[in-house]
Specification:
Layout lengths: L16 E2 L9 E2 L7 E2 L2 E2 H5 L1 E4 H6 L21 H19 L3 E5 H4 L6 H22 L2 E6 L18 H20 L4 E4 L5 E2 L7 H21 L5 E4 L9 E2 L4 H10 L6 E6 H6 L4 H10 L3 E5 L18 H13 L8 E3 L12 H26 L2 H8 L6 H7 L5 H11 L9 H11 L1
Parallel strand pairs: 1-2, 5-6, 5-14, 6-7, 7-8, 8-10, 10-12, 12-13, 13-14
Antiparallel strand pairs: 3-4, 9-11
C-alpha cells in the first residue's frame, strides 16, 4: 500500500516490485524477493529492512567544503510543525513505495529542535502523534528510535561522559523524551550511539570516571524504559573514532566488555555498522561474529566506506564479496536478535534527482539478498561446512574433546606434548575457502 499525504513527492515512481535478475528496469528489485524463503525464513523476515530518517529525508549533501546540493520539497515551510509533517508524508510515501516494513530515527530528524527544552518536548510530542497516524495507515513499524546527543554544541564534550553534570542531565532529559516517543510509536528497540562519548585528548580527561558515568547513565535509561513497560532491546552502536579521537564503544568486543562490566549485558545488544567496522580495522563479518559469539547480535547498519578514505562515508552497500562473507556468519548465527537492517547510508553529493534515492536503496537491498542466496547455497551445497568441521576434528573426540570439557590440566597437556613429539603441519586451505566463495557468487 502506498501512503500519500496531501501531495506526492516522488512523482512518477510507483511501488517497487521484484522482477528478477534478467530485468533491465532500474526501479525494480533483481534479487530481493521479500516472499522468497531462504534457510527457513522469507527475505522480509531475515532482513526487516528499515529506512534511516536522517540520511534519506534530512541529508542535504553538505560536506566540509560546501553546502548541500539537495533541495527537498518538504523543507519549504517556515513553520517547524508543518515542515515536520511534510517530511513525514514524504517519508511514508517513500517507505511504502519501497515496500519496506520499518523505519528508524533520531529525535531531531523528526522535527527541528526548538530554542528551549520545553518547546522541543512539545514539538516532539506533536510529531509523534502524527507519526502514529502514518503508521496506522501504512502498517509500517518503528524498528528503533534514538536521540541526537552529539550535534548540538552543548554536547561538544560528550553527553553521558561530559565533565559537566548539567550537560549530562540535559542529555538525560532529551533521551527520556526519545524513549517516550519510541514507546508511544511501538518501537521494537532503542539505540545508543555515543557520537561524542570519548575523548579528544587524555590530558584533560579522567577516562575511568567518564566510563563509570556512562555505565550509570545507561543503567538509569534502561531502568526508566523498563518501568514504562518497554520490552524491547537496547542497542549499542560501536564506532572507533570520528568525531572523537577515541570513542569508548570502539568496537563490538570493547562494547561487550563494557556492558558486562556494568551489568548491562542482559538488556543490551550490538547494532553493528559496516563502515564503523572497517574504521576499527576489522571486517563487517568479524564484528558480526564477535557479537554473535556473545549472544548480542542485535541489528545491522547497511552501508560501506571508501577504502581510500579514513572517515565514515556512509555509502550504500554494493560489495557482494564482503556481504556474502557476512551473510555466512549471519546465517550460522541464526540471524538477528530483535533488530533489522537499516540503510544508514546516503546518496552521493552529486546525486540530485529524486529517483536516485530509490536506485540506492534498491541496490542495497539487492546486494544483501544476493549475498543471502549465495551464502545459503555455500552452506547447503558446497564443501564449506565439511572443510570447517574437519579443521577442528581433533577436538571432537579423545583428548581434544576432554580439553574442551575442562578435563585436562596443564600437566596433562605437557604429557601429551611429550608423547606426540614433532607434529605434521595441517593446512588451513584458505585459498580453497576463498575459491568456494567466488564459485558460488
Amino acid at each position: 500500500m502506498i501512503v500519500l499525504g496531501n501531495k506526492e513527492y516522488y512523482k512518477g515512481i510507483g511501488q517497487i516490485q521484484f522482477e528478477g535478475k534478467e530485468s533491465d528496469n532500474p526501479l525494480a528489485f533483481k534479487y530481493y524477493n521479500p516472499d522468497q524463503v531462504v534457510a527457513g525464513k522469507t527475505m522480509r523476515e531475515h532482513f526487516r529492512f528499515a529506512i534511516a530518517y536522517w540520511h534519506t529525508f534530512c541529508g542535504h549533501g553538505g560536506d566540509p567544503f560546501g553546502p548541500g546540493t539537495q533541495q527537498f520539497p518538504w523543507d519549504l515551510s517556515n513553520d517547524p510543525i508543518q515542515a515536520a509533517k511534510d517530511k513525514a508524508d514524504a517519508a511514508f510515501e517513500f517507505i511504502t513505495k519501497m515496500g519496506f516494513g520499518h523505519y528508524c530515527f533520531h529525535d531531531n530528524d523528526l522535527i527541528q529542535e526548538a530554542a528551549t527544552f520545553g518547546e522541543s518536548e512539545s514539538r516532539l510530542a506533536t510529531i509523534t502523534d502524527y507519526l502514529k497516524e502514518k503508521q496506522a495507515a501504512s502498517g509500517v513499524k518503528l524498528l528503533w528510535g534514538t536521540a541526537n546527543c552529539f550535534s548540538n554544541p552543548r554536547y561538544m564534550n560528550g553527553a553521558a561522559t561530559n565533565p559537566d553534570f548539567n550537560v549530562l542531565a540535559r542529555a538525560g532529559g532529551q533521551i527520556k523524551l526519545a524513549i517516550d516517543a519510541t514507546i508511544a510509536l511501538g518501537g521494537e528497540n532503542y539505540v545508543f550511539w555515543g557520537g561524542r562519548e570519548g575523548y579528544m585528548s587524555l590530558l584533560n580527561t579522567d577516562m575511568g570516571r567518564e566510563l563509570d558515568h556512562m555505565g550509570q547513565f545507561l543503567t538509569v535509561c534502561r531502568d526508566y524504559a523498563r518501568a514504562q513497560g518497554f520490552k524491547g532491546n537496547f542497542f549499542i552502536e560501536p564506532k572507533p573514532m570520528e568525531p572523537m579521537k577515541h570513542q569508548y564503544d570502539f568496537d563490538s568486543a570493547t562494547a561487550i566488555g563494557f556492558l558486562r562490566q556494568y551489568g548491562l549485558e542482559n538488556d543490551f545488544k550490538m547494532n553493528i555498522e559496516v563502515n564503523h567496522a572497517t574504521l576499527a580495522q576489522h571486517t563487517f563479518q568479524h564484528e558480526i561474529e564477535t557479537a554473535a559469539k556473545a549472544g548480542m547480535l542485535g541489528s545491522l547498519d547497511a552501508n560501506r566506506g571508501d577504502y581510500q578514505n579514513g572517515w565514515d562515508t556512509d555509502q550504500f552497500p554494493n560489495n557482494i564479496q564482503e556481504t556474502t562473507e557476512a551473510m555466512l556468519v549471519f546465517l550460522k548465527a541464526g540471524g538477528l536478535q530483535g533488530g533489522g537492517i537499516n540503510f544508514d547510508a546516503k546518496i552521493r553529493r552529486n546525486s540530485t534527482d529524486m529517483a536516485d534515492v530509490f536506485h540506492a536503496h534498491i541496490g542495497g537491498a539487492d546486494t544483501f539478498a544476493r549475498a543471502l542466496l549465495t551464502a545459503d547455497k555455500i552452506i547447503t551445497s558446497s564443501s564449506y561446512e565439511k572443510l570447517r568441521t574437519e579443521r577442528y576434528s581433533s577436538f571432537d573426540s579423545g583428548k581434544g574433546k576432554e580439553f574442551e570439557e575442562g578435563k585436562l590440566d596443564l600437566k596433562a597437556l605437557y604429557s601429551i606434548a611429550q608423547d606426540n613429539g614433532e607434529l605434521t603441519l595441517q593446512s588451513g586451505k584458505q585459498e580453497l575457502f576463498e575459491n568456494i566463495i567466488n564459485q558460488y557468487i
